[in-house]
Amino acid sequence: MDGSCLNGRVLVVTLLLSIAASLGESQGTRVGFYSSTCPRAESIVRSTVQSHFRSDPTVAPGLLRMHFHDCFVQGCDASILIDGPNTEKTAPPNLLLRGYEVIDDAKTQLEAACPGVVSCADILALAARDSVVLTSGATWAVPTGRRDGRVSQASDAASLPGFRDSVDVHKQKFAAKGLNTQDLVALVGGHTIGTTACQFFRYRLYNFTTTGNGADPSINAAFVSQLQALCPENGDGSRRIGLDTGSANRFDNSFFANLRDGRGILESDQKLWTDASTRTVVQRFLGIRGLLGLTFNVEFGRSMVKMSNIEVKTGTAGEIRKVCSRVN
């Protein structure tokens, strides 16, 4: 690696750290919250995520999505982790989330090292960051100090963005959480890692239009046949397909190139390109000539910090759970 590349990476990391610190401290959380009460907190979470990732790399996108699904419902309070009937975990958008065992493992180790100190909400926020790093993304400083929520209701999951939502609906849902259009595009860019099931996009491949048997016209014509081969009309709806074709295991901006090329898997993802209000942000992440460029890794870290501070509970609000998956 030459000096210019190294200096560039140092600049990106430095910028991410400063952004995270300033954003986090303004919301009641702060970077290094456990520096005196549990100095090994972040390293314990990191090593736990690394250990699980080595045996099953799919936990990385699982943990990233779990954090997202937690923050959009009752704020970032680990309510997604609570077991029991009619909890968030049982809501349809959350049924395929995975990685709970990683959080439980980290919590067990943290309770042994620092009993009653580190919240499940903070473990989830840290694990999401560590998952991005393990898939070749850039790091960022995670503000901590969240408390765990006591309430988890499946009905509240209605606030989650849906894979068939229009861009306008997505923007409304993000705005309700204090996130703008750039945050929306950056955070959806988290789909650069991981997979989805055929059942969530197969409708785009067959009988999509009311005038015939064609596929969604926003899909690249050559790509349609590839997807149809992977997801036959009456085939296994649970079969998993990479969300970022050609780079599903690496955190990079190729997800946006796929949207530009009509190769977005989920309908809501592809709409980021077909809708003019979000296309410009996608183009900036791609470095389109004539537009002020945006560095995806930097902006993703910035938006993750903003998202991780949605409606957080701090101080005397909430609790520090001894078991993250306790029954509601």
Explain this structure.
This protein is mainly alpha-helical and 328 residues long. It contains twelve helices and four strands; from the N terminus they run H-E-H-H-H-H-E-H-H-E-H-E-H-H-H-H. The strands form two sheets. A two-stranded antiparallel ribbon has the order 1-2. A two-stranded antiparallel ribbon has the order 3-4. Helix 9 (254-260) crosses helix 11 and helix 10 crosses helix 11 (276-286). The protein is globular, with a radius of gyration of 20 Å. Residues 20-26 have low confidence and may be disordered.
Question: Can you describe this structure in just a few lines?
Answer:
This protein has 328 residues and is mostly helical.
Q: Any low-confidence stretches, pLDDT <50, length ≥5? A: 20-26
Q: Roughly how many Å apart are the termini?
A: 51 Å
What about the largest sheet?
Answer: 2 strands, antiparallel
- The H-and-E topology, N to C, reads as HEHHHHEHHEHEHHHH
> What general outline do the C-alpha atoms trace?
globular
Instruction: Please work out how many helical segments DSSP would assign.
Output: 12
Oligomer: single chain
What spatial order of strands do you see in the largest sheet?
1-2
Strand content: under 5%
Tell me roughly what share of residues is in helical segments: 40-55%
In round numbers, the mean pLDDT is 91
